[in-house]
UniProtKB/TrEMBL annotation:
<protein>
    <submittedName>
        <fullName>Uncharacterized protein</fullName>
    </submittedName>
</protein>
Length: 200
C-alpha cells in the first residue's frame, strides 16, 4: 500500500508526507520519489528512457529553482511560501538524427500528459523531414519538441508560442511548454516576446 501511495502522488506531495513524519524514505526512494520531473510529467519512466536516447528537457523561469528547493527543504519552503503556485516553462529537444525509427516515433509523440496528438505527430514528423533535408544540417543538431500538444493550441502556426498544460501531476504547478514553428526549428531558436520575458 505504501509503495502504491508513493507511486500515485506528486514529488511535492511525497516531500510533504516526509516532512510531516508520515513516511520515511530510504536513500533509494528519495532518489526515485523526490524528483522535480514527477511534478511536471505523468510518465517519468518514459522521460528517463528517452533521455538516454538524447531527449533534453530545460526548465525556465523563477519557479524552476523553487521546484527543486521545495523537495529538499520542504519545511522552510512551506513556512515561507505555503502552497503558492509555481510557474514553470519547459523546452524540449532531441537529436535531429536519431538512432532508430522506433526511438524517433517515441520522441516525436512524447507528451507531458501521456496523451499524444496524432495530427501533431504527423506534422512534427513532416517538419523534422524538412529540417533534415536542409543541406548544411548539423549531424549533432537538435530538434525542438512540441510535446504533442493539440494542433489548435497554435493560434498562428508560423510563430512559436507557449501553451499552458492543464493536466499536470502537481496541482500547484502552472506548466507552459514551448510549441515551435517550422521557422523556429530551422533556425534553432526560441522566440520570446517582451511579455514572455517579464512572465519568466
Amino acid at each position: 500500500i505504501r509503495r502504491r501511495i508513493l507511486d500515485s502522488v506528486s514529488a511535492f506531495d511525497a516531500a510533504k508526507l516526509v516532512n510531516l513524519k508520515l513516511c520515511v524514505l530510504t536513500a533509494k526512494e528519495k532518489e526515485k520519489y523526490l524528483k522535480p520531473i514527477r511534478d511536471l510529467v505523468w510518465d517519468v519512466p518514459a522521460v528517463e528512457r528517452l533521455s538516454r536516447e538524447g531527449m533534453k528537457l530545460m526548465l525556465l523561469g523563477d519557479g524552476a529553482h523553487a521546484l527543486e528547493q521545495r523537495l529538499h527543504a520542504t519545511e522552510r519552503y512551506l513556512n515561507s511560501c505555503g502552497n503558492e503556485r509555481l510557474t514553470i516553462y519547459l523546452l524540449g529537444t532531441f537529436p535531429v538524427f536519431t538512432p532508430t525509427a522506433t526511438t524517433l516515433d517515441s520522441l516525436v509523440e512524447f507528451s507531458t500528459t501521456g496523451h499524444s496528438n496524432l495530427v501533431r505527430f504527423y506534422c512534427d514528423k513532416y517538419q523534422l523531414g524538412r529540417v533534415r533535408a536542409v543541406p548544411d544540417t548539423d549531424a549533432k543538431g537538435d530538434f525542438l519538441m512540441s510535446f504533442s500538444v493539440p494542433m489548435q493550441a497554435s493560434t498562428d502556426p508560423t510563430k512559436g508560442s507557449w501553451y499552458k498544460v492543464d493536466d499536470v501531476p502537481d496541482r500547484t504547478v502552472d506548466l507552459w511548454v514551448y510549441v515551435p514553428s517550422l521557422r523556429d526549428r530551422l533556425c534553432k531558436e526560441v522566440r520570446l516576446i517582451p511579455l514572455d520575458v517579464l512572465r519568466m
